[in-house]
Amino acid sequence: MLPIVELKNIAHAYVTDRGASLAIDYLSLFIEPGEFVSLVGPSGCGKTTLLSIVAGLLTPSQGEVLLLGEKVSGPTPQVGYMLQQDYLFPWRTIYENSLIGLELTSQVTDRTKESTLHLLNEMGLGAAIDLYPHHLSGGMRQRVALVRTLATDPEVLLLDEPFSALDYQTKLQLEDLIVKTLKDRHKTALLVTHDLSEAIAMSDRVIVLGASPGHIRKTFEIPQNIRDSQPFYAREQEGFNELFREVWSELEASERKE
Ligand code: ADP
Ligand code: MG
């Protein structure tokens, strides 16, 4: 199958007044359409840098990113980016916040407005559309951020620790909602998380990165029984704990190397 995202020998150095530092070292990766891939690794190993490169926000020093076979040379509506902070505009209602991506890409039409309202309803935000962000809980705000990201109908979603500011229960609910929403729409996702059980429960594949500079240490294919279960129940599946320990020890080894 043609990969939807292909990273070819990506290297990236940041240049500052104190010199240049290599953040990513010749990293290559294929992601298939509809796949859910997670990146885990020690702080500073280049996860955010990698997502920014895939998003077209940062040009790598070496190598290239292909999106459906075409070289990425800047941000494109085919890629949506969701961050830990929701960055909702406080002066706009929930509905108006949801339309921002569509406005920025000149795609506001009756049809896209209707599909955004539909998404808001699907995310359980139907009663909140005329409220302002400060009226909402953290979990609701992240759901608005998800609607805003999905409203432009991107093929690929980049998620940079989107649950890390949420309480545990809200986070579990949002994991289920995101996996279901993306699988139903056959979207592709690249998630960065600190939480190994979240990575295993949500993904088809978990990639452990090592630091200094960032590189792939090991890739774990998630067994079918875990993939087939919603993240909440995936944690109870046979083999989950063993896999957790394997990924954990790989991550520990990568942190020891620092
Ligand atoms: P992660 O998301 O895995 O924590 P980052 O991609 O944010 O890692 O950072 C990777 C490395 O690049 C770190 O050593 C970080 O200090 C450095 N870095 C990140 N952004 C910049 C920047 N804008 N300028 C200089 N160095 C940076
Ligand atoms: Mg980061």
From TrEMBL:
Pfam family, one: ABC_tran
SUPFAM superfamilies, sorted: P-loop containing nucleoside triphosphate hydrolases
InterPro entries, sorted: AAA+_ATPase, ABC_transporter-like_ATP-bd, ABC_transporter-like_CS, ABC_transporter_ATP-bind, P-loop_NTPase
Gene Ontology molecular function terms on file: ATP binding
Domain of life: Bacteria
Domain ABC transporter: 5-236
Alphabetized PROSITE patterns for the sequence: ABC_TRANSPORTER_1 (PS00211), ABC_TRANSPORTER_2 (PS50893)
Keyword terms: ATP-binding, Nucleotide-binding, Transport
Protein known as: NitT/TauT family transport system ATP-binding protein
Organism per entry: Paenibacillus sediminis
